[in-house]
Amino acid sequence: MKKLLKFLSPYKKESVLGPLFKLLEASFELFVPLVVAAIIDVGIAQGDKRLIFTHCALLLGLAIIGLVCAVTAQYFAAKAAVGFAKGVRHALFAHIGTLSYSDLDRMGTSTLITRMTSDVNQVQSGVNLTLRLLLRSPFVVLGAAVMAFTVDVKAALIFAVTIPVLSAVVFGIMFFCVPLYKNVQSRLDAITKTTRENLSGARVLRAFRREQQEIHTFDEKNAALTDAQIRVGRISALLNPLSLALINLAIIALIYVGALRVDSGDLTQGEVVALYNYMSQILVELIKFASLVITLTKGIACAKRVQAVLDTNPSMDAPVNGQTASGQGDVVVSFRHVTAQYPGAGDASLRDVSFEARRGETIGIIGGTGAGKTTLVNLIPRFYDVSEGEISVLGAPVKDWDLPTLREKIGVVPQKAVLFRGTIRENLIWGKQNATEEELLHALSLAQASDILRGKEDGLDSLVEQNGRNYSGGQRQRLTIARALVRRPEILILDDSASALDYATDAALRRSLCSLQKEYHPTIFIVSQRTSSLRHADRIIVLDEGNVVGIGTHTELLQHCETYREIHRSQYQDQEEEV
Questions:
Q1: What does the angle CA 20 – CA 171 – CA 294 come to, to the nearest 5 degrees?
Q2: Per-position DSSP letters for 535-555, written without gaps between them
Q3: Is position 509 within any domain?
Q4: d(C-alpha 577, C-alpha 214), whole Å
Q5: What pTM value is reported for the model?
Q6: Does residue 196 share a domain with residue 105?
Q7: What is the mean pLDDT of each run of 10 residues along the chain (579 residues)?
Q8: Pick from 310, 338, 354: which residue ends a domain?
Q9: Cα–Cα dist 113/103, whole Å
Q10: Residue 46: alpha-carbon gap to chain centroid
Q11: Residue at which a domain ends, from 488, 513, 546
C-alpha cells in the first residue's frame, strides 16, 4: 500500500484539506455536549430562557458549520481518491503492456482483469474512507476522552479503560482479516477466469453440450468464493457487536458512577449528560471506524495484489532511451542453434534450429500440430526469448534491438484473427497511423479484402463490432492481413492466417504476396498446414516435434523429406500435384 501512495502526489492539496475539514467538523462537534450541559445546568435549572435560546442558536450554528465542513471534506476526499485510482489504473495498464508473453502467460488474463477493476476499486474506497475517517475517528475518540477529563477526572477514568480495550479489538480483527480478504480476491480471480472462458467459448460449449458440466464447475468455484467470504465475514462481523457491547458496558458504568457523584454533589446533572454524550460520540466514531477498518482491510489486501503486478519486472530486457540496433545486410533473419522452451513446460518447443532468410525471400514453415511453427515465428519479433542460441534481425542480435523499433520493421498476422471495436479504417491504421486512404485500399486489395467494402455505404468507416463478430472468419483473416500490409514491413509473418480462406482466394493472396517482391522486397514467413500455400516459397522449413527435419523447395522436399511427403499426400490423396 505504501508504494502506491506515490499516486496521491498530484493530490497533495486535496489529501490535506480533506482530513483538515474533517478535523474542523470534529472540533465543533466536541463542544456540543458542553453547550447541552450549560442548557441543563443553567438554562433549565435556573429558568434562564435567554440562555436556552442563545445556546440553542449556538447548537444550530455548530451544526451548520459542521455540515459545511463535512461536505467540503467529502469533496476533497472523493477528488483525491478518484484521481489516485485513475493514476493506479493508468500505471497498471501501462506496466502490463511492457510485460512479455511469458509474463502474461504466467499471471493469466483473468487475474489481471480483476486487479485492474475490482482490486483498484477496493483500494479507491479505502483511500476515500481513510482521508475522511482515519484522522477524524481517533481525534473524536481521544478528544471526547480529554473533554471528559475536563468535566470530571474520576468518571473519565472509565474512558481511559474502554478506549484501549476497543482499540485492541479493532486492530486484532483487522490483523486476522487481511490475509483472508486476499484469499477472497484470489477466489474471485477463478470466477472471472471461468466466466470469461464460458462467454468467449459459448458456441463450443453448446456444440458439445457441456453447459451442465460448466455450470457445475462454476457452482463449485462460486461456492468456494462464498465460503471464503462467509469465513472472513464472520470474523469482521464480530467488530460491531463487540464494540457495542464494550461501549454499552462503559455507559452503564458511567451512569452508575455519575449517579453516585451527583448524589454526593460532585457532579451536576448536565455534566453527567455531557459525559454520556461524549461516550455516545465515541460509540458512533468507533462504528464508523469499524466500517473503515473493514474497507481498509479489503483495500490493503487488494493493494498488495496490485503492487505485486507493478513490482513484476519484465522478464525480457531490451535497450531503452532510444538505443536501437541498425544492422543491415542481405541476411534479414538468422537462426543459429536456437532452442526455445516455454516457462513451466516439460520439454523444449524448438531444438537446435538454424537457417538464414535473405531479403526478398519467401520462407514457408510447415509441420504437424504442436511441431513448433508458431513458436518459431514468435521468436523473430521477440515475443518470447530463446533458451539457447541466437537470433539476428538485419544483421544485429534480436536482443540488441529496441523492441518498438524492431517491431516497427515487422508485420505480424497472428494465428487468431483479432479485430477491435470501431471501424475498418481504425483497425487498419494500427499498421500505420498516418496511412492515406489510397494506402488502406491498396492493402485491402493485396489482402483480397476489397469485396468486404462492396455494398457498404460507409466504406472504410463501416462498423466493426467487438472481436469482429459481424464478419466471417475469412473476412477477419483478410482484414488482419491488410492491417499488417499497410505498414509495408521489411519482414512479414503470416502465422496460418489463410486457414479460413478457400483455395481460390488463397491462391490470389499468394499472387499478391509475390507482387510485393516487385514493390519493396520484403522477407515473408508463411506458416501453413497446406502444402499448396507453400509450394512457390523459395524455401520451406519442415518441423516435426520441434526439430527441423527438412529445408528446401517444394519439389526438393517431395523427393527427400518423408515428413513433408506424408503431409502432402494426406492432403492430395497420393496425387503428385494438386489441381
A1: 70
A2: TTSSEEEEEETTEEEEEE-HH
A3: no
A4: 46
A5: 0.71
A6: yes
A7: 82 92 89 85 79 88 91 93 93 88 82 87 90 86 84 82 82 79 80 82 83 89 90 83 83 84 81 84 78 80 87 79 59 93 83 92 91 92 91 89 88 90 92 89 91 86 88 90 92 88 86 83 91 90 92 92 90 55
A8: 310
A9: 15
A10: 67
A11: 488
Strand partners, 493: 412, 525
DSSP class of residue 227 equals H
The verdict on 391 and 430 lying in the same domain is: no
Is the Cβ–Cβ distance between 501 and 527 less than 8 Å?
no
Cα distance between residue 304 and residue 421, in whole Å: 33
Q: Which residue has the cell 487468431?
A: 416
Q: 482 is in which domain, residue-wise?
A: 415-488
165 and 43 in a common domain: yes
Q: CA 367, CA 527: separation in Å to the nearest integer?
A: 9
Contact 408, 381 (CB under 8 A): no
Q: What is the pLDDT of residue 579?
A: 37
Q: Which amino acid, one-letter code, is at 540?
A: I
Structural contact between residues 465 and 475, judged by C-beta atoms closer than 8 angstroms: no
CATH code for the domain in which residue 172 is found? 1.20.1560.10
| Rounded distance between C-alpha atoms, residue 55 and residue 32, angstroms | 10
**Single-letter amino acid code for the residue at 80:** A
Q: Please provide the distance, in angstroms rounded to a whole number, between the alpha carbons at the two ends of the chain.
A: 66
- 27 and 75 part of one domain: yes
Nearest to 438 by CA among 451, 425, 448: 425
Indicate which CATH number applies to the domain containing 368.
3.40.50.300
Instruction: Give yes or no: residues 387 and 457 share one domain.
Output: no
Radius of gyration over every alpha carbon of the chain, rounded to an integer in angstroms: 35
Same domain, 361 and 403: yes
Hey, what's the cell of 412? 505480424
Would you say residue 80 lies in a domain? yes
DSSP 453: G
Cα 421 from Cα 427, distance rounded (Å): 8
| pLDDT at residue 470, as a whole number | 86
Does 508 reside within a domain? no
- Same domain (yes/no): 339, 458: no
**517 belongs to a structural domain:** no
Retrieve residue 301's grid coordinates.
Answer: 489486501
For residues 428 and 549, membership in a common domain is answered with no
Whether the Cβ atoms of residue 493 and residue 410 lie closer than 8 Å to each other: yes
Measured over all CA atoms, what is the biggest interatomic distance in the chain, rounded to whole angstroms? Answer: 119
CA dist 51 → 30, 41, 54, 56, 511 (Å): 20, 11, 5, 8, 100
Question: In this structure, what DSSP letter does residue 429 have?
Answer: T
Domains of the chain: total: 3
Type of residue numbered 79:
K
